[in-house]
Amino acid sequence: MEPTSTSLDGNTEAPSHWLDRYFGVTRRGSTLRTEVLAGIATFLAGMYIIVVNPAILSDAGIPFSAALSATVLISFMSSLAMGLYARNPILVAPGMGMNALFTYTLVQGAGLSWEVALGCVFWSGVLFALLAVFNVRKAIIEAIPASLRYAITCGIGLFITFIGLKNAGFIVGSDATLVTLGSFDPALITFFIGMMATAILVILRFNGALILGIALTTLLATPMGRMWGGDVVVEWSGLAAWPDFSAVMQVDIWGALKVAYLPFIFVMLFTNFFDALSCFMALSESADLKDKDGNPRNLKRSMTVDAFASMIAAPLGTSAAQTFIESGAGVAQGGRTGLVAVTIALLFLPFLFLSPLLSLVPGIATAPALVLVGLFMLAPITKIDWARYDQAFPAFLAIILMPLTYSITLGIAFGFLSFVLIKVFTGRIEEIKPAMWISAALSVVMLITTH
């Protein structure tokens, strides 16, 4: 007689499947069907990264098709590891914010080659792995004030939104006012319609709202240069092709080991570490994914997967991978186990062969997704105590300087420096933890060596 399993509500279910036994699906109060559907929901919510990440990395000089192959590969491998090893329902893929830091701060801002910038990604991943393996997250969490952690996420969100508006031509340079509204040409009108359509899809809670917005804006852009003025921005080049692995193993590991680059490595480590931790904490609260002590379930294993995903991303040719808050889409559908992540991983694989089709997508079609991602990343702003100016002012500087200086590292550097200086000159030096002193010192090194 085949074994049966009993759900949490006491109902006897179908004979136990090996997937059920391995992932503990029934024990977590779910079903195999629910887990697979939750995986599909999360994939639809986060699959925009397949197009958006290569679009951003191509600005750093990495070929679009090579960046796409790297994006798909690391998303497949790291999500699979999250499912099989950490057994959590979490998508891991190249992170928004990390790709912006890579392209617009390290490559375009500091002048690093993309190969050396990938080396910085690699070393930040190595440090992340050490932190995860030795489980020192508690000491680091206590050292960096929560207000600055929230501010950095918000600042990166504004920076990404600014990039989206700039890429679409919605914001252009101006000698008189530095920036101004672009001219109302077909490209700008197409972008605005696409942005509003994407926002409406998000508000209506459509699964895959961002990828639907990208597809719709691409269709709207197709007549450009054909039926009305402007350049042709959507050009058919085929449906499928073999993956482009030209960026694989192009990472310059040793070239990244310069004193001048240490602040960049630190900023990548800091951003990735706290993004991962914040995501795990948020998902564990919303879905009760906790252990018997009330901590996020399998946190050390999850952080280890995230760390090694960041380290492996560089040899593959992409910026660091990290946990996606879009995993909440699958959690909301009832996903509770690693089977969700395994489903997500398998859904990424076919896109390894679709680079010609996806290269159709123009910048004005990915720009609405960037604007909306910026909105999502502003959520922690309400957690900052704006009535406490010793906390609020450094947070404010970090948020506002990222888009205004076009640099994530500058925003973080001045946030850290202002926090330390305020504590010193207001007689609260005991509130500065050793890690904050180190962070401020690295910020000074970065400012001196790169500006």
TrEMBL record:
Compartments where found: Cell membrane
Highest rank taxon of the organism: Bacteria
Signal sequence region: none
InterPro entries: Azg-like (IPR045018), Azg-like_bact_archaea (IPR026033), NCS2 (IPR006043)
Keyword Isomerase: no
Membrane topology: Multi-pass membrane protein
Transmembrane region(s): 36-56, 62-84, 91-110, 116-136, 148-166, 186-204, 209-229, 259-283, 304-325, 337-354, 361-381, 393-422
UniProt cross-references to Pfam families, sorted A to Z: Xan_ur_permease
Keywords for this protein: Cell membrane, Membrane, Transmembrane, Transmembrane helix, Transport
Similarity field: Belongs to the nucleobase:cation symporter-2 (NCS2) (TC 2.A.40) family. Azg-like subfamily.
Protein name, as recorded: NCS2 family permease
Species whose genome carries this gene: Billgrantia campisalis
